[in-house]
Design a protein that fits this description.
Helices cover 34% and strands 34% of the residues. By secondary structure, the protein is an alpha+beta fold.
């Protein structure tokens, strides 16, 4: 099974232990404020927090972490399939492009589609779910185009500065993904 994907000079590949330092220094020192806002994480992390967590993810049996590598070799994003429940064949999903200059190029859509396909083709999942905040309509549209469907809304569940926003729950099921694949090959 090949877990390395390429597009326009970019590479999406599994994380490796030796990536931990570059992952921190290239993306978390400092973390782009828009990444913290759109993902709901805190705005600053220590070196040890990031590196220790990164290394623990590699050993975890309930997740697959991929790094987006730019043509110049820098780590600029990630796609994560986590919280895998092997009995239910279900998982959570998220993507991030850390560097602003790599956004707006269609890479987010490529990350979503590539990781989605990996989840169903290689991991044999039945369900892939995510949540997206209502103040990120561009991401929601990307997920909708990739076949995810809205399943619910947690109203006023997050803060965007001092304003409440919704947390939108989305998922795609195995048969929906198969239908997308069928349409693409017709």
């Amino acid at each position: 099974m090949c877990n390395i994907f390429h597009r326009d000079g970019y590479t999406l590949r599994p994380t490796r232990a030796e990536d931990a330092e570059d992952y921190f220094w290239q993306n978390f020192d400092p973390l782009d404020p828009s990444v913290a806002r759109l993902t709901g994480c805190k705005s600053a992390f220590s070196h040890d927090e990031v590196v220790d967590f990164f290394r623990s993810c590699i050993a975890a049996e309930d997740r697959y972490d991929f790094l987006l590598i730019a043509p110049d070799g820098r780590i600029v994003g990630e796609a994560v399939i986590n919280e895998i429940d092997w009995a239910l064949r279900s998982a959570n999903f998220r993507v991030a492009i850390f560097q602003p200059e790599h956004r707006g190029r269609g890479l987010g859509a490529w990350l979503v589609e590539t990781a989605r396909d990996f989840a169903f083709q290689h991991l044999k999942l039945h369900r892939l779910e995510l949540d997206v905040f209502s103040f990120n309509p561009r991401a929601e549209q990307t997920y909708l185009r990739a076949g995810f469907r809205r399943e619910g809304v947690l109203r006023d569940a997050v803060l965007d500065g001092e304003t409440y926003a919704d947390d939108i729950l989305m998922a795609i099921l195995e048969d929906e993904w198969r239908a997308l694949q069928q349409e693409a090959h017709e």
